[in-house]
Specification:
2 domains, 73% helix, globular
Length: 237
């Protein structure tokens, strides 16, 4: 809850700051894992690196696409609700790929969740159409960007579910090593953020120019956006 609260404050000020938030989260978890899980690089991974590279490609793509969707007229509440549909995507791909079968009660639960997400998406579409009607020239463009945002969220949802299935097959083969997976899933993608460096640097400058905030208890003074970012990263555990 606190993580989402600080993320909401950051996105309210700078809606396009998702990349710097994601990079900070990845960097924090990678450093923590390098110290406590990899023992400063002295501990070899139990699962071969090549499998982590595949998982990382999917994980990095999901994170970046989810954050970029916020730039496509997708509201934060819709973003959160849409991502709650991960169970739907996991069940669908489980049936298709793993040939799983579920009880009637689970199908019913998924149907109800799907109905809720559809209703929220439909109401969001009406809101976007209502807002864009104030400027008819840009109305179609705004709505098309929103549709692209929905497509991005759907893609990220399916990719995340596929990653979960891949992870499940790895755990069946090599055993469950969640801490190790967490470290490599965040450490290996770090070079990929070089592609996003201009956007990350731009928002770092904007964050530094935000109003100063005195941190309670510690007595330190930080730009308030850096405080929001720091608290978002720390409270994700």
């Amino acid at each position: 809850c606190f993580t989402l609260l600080f993320l909401f404050h950051a996105l309210r000020e700078f809606p396009g700051c998702g990349n710097i938030v994601t990079f900070s989260q990845f960097l924090f978890i990678a450093v923590e894992g390098f110290i406590f899980e990899a023992n400063f690089g002295r501990k070899s991974p139990t699962i071969p690196i090549r499998y982590y590279l595949i998982m990382v490609a999917m994980f990095f793509t999901v994170s970046v696409v989810n954050n970029y969707a916020l730039n496509l007229n997708i509201s934060m509440p819709l973003h959160m609700i849409f991502r709650s549909g991960s169970l739907i995507a996991s069940m669908a791909l489980g049936i298709i790929i793993l040939k799983k079968r579920y009880s009637v009660s689970k199908y019913t639960s998924i149907a109800l969740v799907s109905l809720g997400i559809f209703t929220c998406t439909f109401m969001s579409a009406k809101q976007v159409a209502s807002d864009s009607s104030l400027n008819e020239e840009d109305g179609v463009q705004v709505f098309l960007w929103w549709l692209l945002g929905i497509a991005a969220l759907t893609f990220a949802l399916l990719m995340s579910a596929r990653m979960g299935i891949f992870q499940e097959t790895l755990y069946q083969r090599f055993g469950k090593h969640s801490k190790e997976a967490l470290f490599y899933n965040h450490a290996l993608p770090l070079p990929g953020f070089l592609l996003l460096a201009p956007n990350i640097y731009q928002h770092a400058v904007l964050f530094s120019q935000s109003e100063p905030f005195r941190v309670p208890v510690l007595g330190l003074t930080l730009p308030i956006m850096w405080f929001y970012l720091l608290m978002n990263v720390v409270t994700q555990y």
